[in-house]
Amino acid sequence: MKFAWFAGCKIPYFLPQYERASRAVLEALEVELVELEMNCCGYPVRHQSFEAFILSAARNSALAQARGLDILTPCKCCFGSLKQAEYWLRESDSLRAETNRQLDEEDLRWEGAKIRIRHLLSVMAEDVGIAKIRAKRKHVYDGLKVAAHYGCHALRPANVVRFDNPLAPTLFEKLVDATGAQSVDWPRRLDCCGSPLWEKNQALALELMRKKLEDALQAGAQVLCTACTYCQIQFDTVRAAELNAGGLEGRLPSILYPQLLGLCLGLSAESLGLADNRLDASLIRNYLG
Amino acid sequence: MQITFFTFTLYLSLAICLIGLTYRGWTWLKLEVGPPAERFSCGQRAAAAAQGLLRTLLSRRIFAVLKVLVLDVGLQVRILKADLRRWCMHMSIFVGVLLLVLMHALDEPLTQALFPDYASTRNPFMFLRNLGGAMVLAGVGLALYRRVRIRGLRRTTRTGDRLAMGLLALIIFSGFVLEGLQIISAPIFDQMVEDYLGTDDPEDRAALKVYWAQDFGVAFSGLKASADAEVWAQGQDLHEESCAGCHSNPRAAFVSYPLARALQSMAGVLNGMRADVWMWYVHFLACFGGLAVLPFTKFFHLIATPLQLLVGAVENPSPAAGANQQTKRVLGLDACMHCGVCTLHCSVEPVFRIMGNPSILPSEKLASVKTLAAGRLRDPEALAAVAAGSFICTSCYRCTRVCPAGIDLQDLWSASRQSLVARGFTEPHIWVRERTAAEWAAGLIAPQASPFPALKNKPRHVNLVDQTETFSACVQCQTCTNVCPVVAAAGDSARDLDLTPQQIMNLLRLGAHEMAMGARMVWDCVTCYMCQEHCPQGVKVADVMYELRNRACERLPAVKQAVHGTPLCERSSDPGRKEDRS
Fold first, then answer.
1. In what order do the strands lie in the sheet with A223-226?
2. Residue A44 maps to which CATH number?
3. Does A82 share its domain with A162?
4. Which residue, A90, B138, B282, B556, is the most exposed by fewest CB within 10 angstroms?
5. Are residues A159 and A263 in the same domain?
6. Rounded Cα–Cα distance for residues B169 and B166 (Å)
7. Are B28 and B331 in contact (CB under 8 A)?
8. DSSP of B214-247, one letter per residue?
9. pLDDT reading at B451 higher than 50
C-alpha cells in the first residue's frame, strides 16, 4: 500500500508530532509513504479567492496523479479542500479548462478522479482495516474513555467528501475502540472546534471550543482524540495558552489518533512525539495493559 | 595622469564602499521588524550584540560557529545538499572571485609579499588569473541560464539581479579583452624594450620582434611574415636574457590568448588607437564601480550572508535575546541575495498565479519587508498589498528550511505581519466588524459616495450567488440557522451577527447581495457545513457564504477606502508612526 504523503502547511512548524506519529504508525501498519513536494491545499485562501483555492488543490492532485499515487493526508481541512476542488472541477467545465491551462505551464494536468484522496482515518479503517490494526496490537487500553472529535471538513458536505455518514458517523469510534479504549457518546462530537476563527474572532473561537470540552467532560471522557491538524492545534496548542482554567485545568487533554494507537502498537512515546503535546496526556499510559 | 586618475577612482570607490558598509552595519542596530512592543534602542542592541559575541567566543559555542564557517560558508554544504547544479554555479563564482581578488586585485600588497618572484605575466599566475576569470564567467553563465530557464526564477528576476550578473560579467570579460589587447600590443612591446632591453642595436630589436611576434602573439604592423630561423634564434637569446624573467608563454592565458589571436586581424587599428589603454579604463572602472556599489547591491551578500550563517549557528538564550532578535532580523533582510529558492518551494505560489500580488512570494515579500523596515514603504496601498500578501502565507516553514543563507524567514514573516496588524492592516474578518451590514450596504449601493467607479462583478467559473436556482428551493425553514454553531454561540444574532444564515439566503434570493456582504455572520462563519448538510432543500448555504466572502474581498476595500478617506487601512492613530513614539 503506497500513498503520496500530504502533510499540509501547519504540521512542519506547529505540529511536527503529528507527522512523526503518523509516519511511525503507518510504517508499523505497512503503509508506504512517498514524499512529493506539494503546495498548500487551498483551504486558507478559499475565503478570498475560489480560483486560487482550486488551482492550489488541483496542482496537488495533478502532482500525485503524475506519479500514479493516491494522496494520504492527516489533516481534515486539507482533505476537505482537496475533495471540494475535485468536486468543483468536475462540476464546471470552464473552471477545469482554466485550471488546466494554468497547470499546463509546468506540464501538469488535472484529469478527474484518476487518483483517490484519502484521509488518515479512512486509510486506517478501510484500506488497512480494523482487523489488521487489532492483529498488530501489542497492548490495549483498559478503561480509558475517549471522546472522538470528528472535524467538520472531512465529514461535510457528505456528497463531496464521502467520508462517513454525516449525521451518524462511526468510523472514528471504531478506530478508537480498536485500541481497547472506550469511545464515549457526546452530543457535540460533530461540532466545529472553533479553529477557523482563530485570530479572526478569538472570543468566539474559544467559546466554541469551551462548549465542546464541557460536553465531552460531561460524557465522562478522560481524553479528547483528534485526527486533524487544525483541531489538534486548537485543542492542544491554543487551549494550553488560552483555555486552561475555570474547572478545565489539566482536564481532557487532546491526543492525536496515531499517538493513541501508536502506544498500542508498541511504539515509544518518543517516536510518537508525545512530549511535544502542550497539554500533558500521559495519563493514557496508565490505562495501557 | 593615468595613475593619478586610477588612484583617485580607487580611493573614491573605496571611500563609498566603506561609508556604505558602515551605514549598513548601523542599520543592523537601528532598523526594526516587528510590533512596537519589541523596540530596543540602538545602544541596547549594540550592547546585546557585543554581549552575545563575547558569550559565544568564550564558550564552547565557538566550535559550532567554526563548523558553520568551514562547512556552510567555505564549502557551502547547505547549497550542495539541496542542489548540485546550484552548488557548481555558486562555487564557480565564489572560488573564481576569491582567486582573482587575492592573486590579481591584491597582487601588490598580497601576492607579491607571498611570492617574491610574482609577475602578472608569469605562470602560474597568468594561468590562475585566466582560470579564476573563466570560473566566474562560467558561474555567471549558469546563473543566467537558470534565471532564463526556470520559470519561477524568470518571473522574479529583477534589475538588481541583472545588474549584478551584468557587472560581474563586464568585469571579467573586460579583463580578458584587456589581456588579449595587451598580448597583441606593439606599443607596449616598444615601451618594454625601451625600459628593459639592454641594447639599442636595431638588429637586436628586430630579432626580438620576430621572436615575440611568433611565440608571444604581438602584432607588429609591416613585420615580414617569414623571418629566417637564425633571426628567430637571436631573438630567443635576447628574450631569455632580458624578458623571460617576467614573461611566461602567453598560451597559458587560455582565454586571453585565443582572444588575442582572434583580434590579430584588427591589430593595426587596435594598436593604433591604443585600445589596450581604453580597455584598461573600462576594466578598472568596472572593478571600482563594483567595489563602490558593493554595500548597496546584492554583492553585499558577500558580507551579510556569511555573517547570517555564523550568527544562525548560535542559539542565544541570553537575556539579551530580544534585542539580538531584532538585530538578527535586519541582518537577515540584508543576507538575502534574492536567489529565489524560497519562492521556488513556496507553498502558496499557485495563489500568486491567480492573485498576482508579488508580496505573496517570499523572495519578493522580503524586499517589501526591507523597505518597510527602512521606513520607505509609506504608500497605504503598497502597505495594504504587503499585508495582503503576508496574510496569504500559511507559515509552512518551507522557505526557512530551504534558505541557503539560513535566514529565519518564518520569524521575519511573523514579525512583519504583526507590525502591519499593529498599524491597522488586518484581515477582512477583523475590519468588516467595524461596521454593520447595513452600513456596508449603503457604501456599496451608493456609488456616488465613492470616488471610485463601482466595481462590476468579475466573471466566475462557479457562480452561486447570481443564480436563482441556488436559492429557488429555499423554503425559509430556518434549519440552517437552527443548526449553526455560530448562531448558537452568539447572544443576540441581530446584534452580534447582523443576519442569520436563513436571512442571508433570503436576501440573496431577492438579489440583494450588497445587504449580505458585510454581515458579520458571513465573516464569523466557521465553514463547518452544518447548514448545508442539514438543509432539507439542498441549498449550498456554506458554499454561498464562501462566495460572498470572495465577492466582499473584491468590493469592500474600495468602500472602506471611500468611507475612511485617503488611508486604505492605516489607522488614524497609528502606534507605529514616529511622532507617536516620542
1. A182-183, A145-148, A223-226, A254-256
2. 1.20.1050.140
3. no
4. A90
5. yes
6. 5
7. yes
8. HHS----TT--S---HHHHHHHHHHHHHHTTTT-
9. no
Instruction: Indicate whether A124 belongs to any domain.
Output: no
Is residue B282 within 8 A of residue B173, CB to CB? The reply is: no
**In terms of pTM, does the model score above 0.90?**
yes
ipTM over 0.90: yes
Chain B residues with CB-CB distance to A13 below 8 A: 395-397, 410
Mutation target vs A (from B151, B348, B351, B534; most A CBs, 10 A cutoff): B351
| Local confidence band at B450 (pLDDT 50, 70, 90 cut-offs) | very low
Cβ-defined contact of A40 to B347 (cutoff 8 Å)? yes
Q: In the prediction, which pLDDT does B569 show? A: 45
A194 close contact with B: CB closer than 8 A: yes
Range of the domain at A68: 2-118
> How large is the average pLDDT for residues B229-236?
90
Closest CB from A14, A157, A199 relative to B533: A157
Residue pLDDT, tens place only, A67-125: 999 999 999 999 999 999 999 999 999 999 999 999 999 999 999 878 999 999 999 99
Q: How far apart are CA A280 and CA A236, in angstroms?
A: 9
- Structure confidence at residue B570 as a pLDDT band (50, 70, 90): very low
Q: Looking up cell 487551498, which residue turns up?
A: A42
Kindly report the CATH number assigned to the domain that includes residue A253: 3.40.50.11810
Kindly report, residue by residue over A14-42, the tens digit of the pLDDT. Answer: 999 999 999 999 999 999 999 999 999 99
Chain A residue numbers with beta carbons less than 8 Å from the beta carbon of B553 are: 47-49
How many CB contacts within 8 angstroms connect chain A with chain B? 141
Which one-letter amino acid corresponds to residue A267? L
Distance CA B165, CA B177 (A): 18
* Phi, psi (rounded to 5 degrees) for B267: -60, -40
Is A157 an interface residue toward B (CB < 8 Å)?
yes
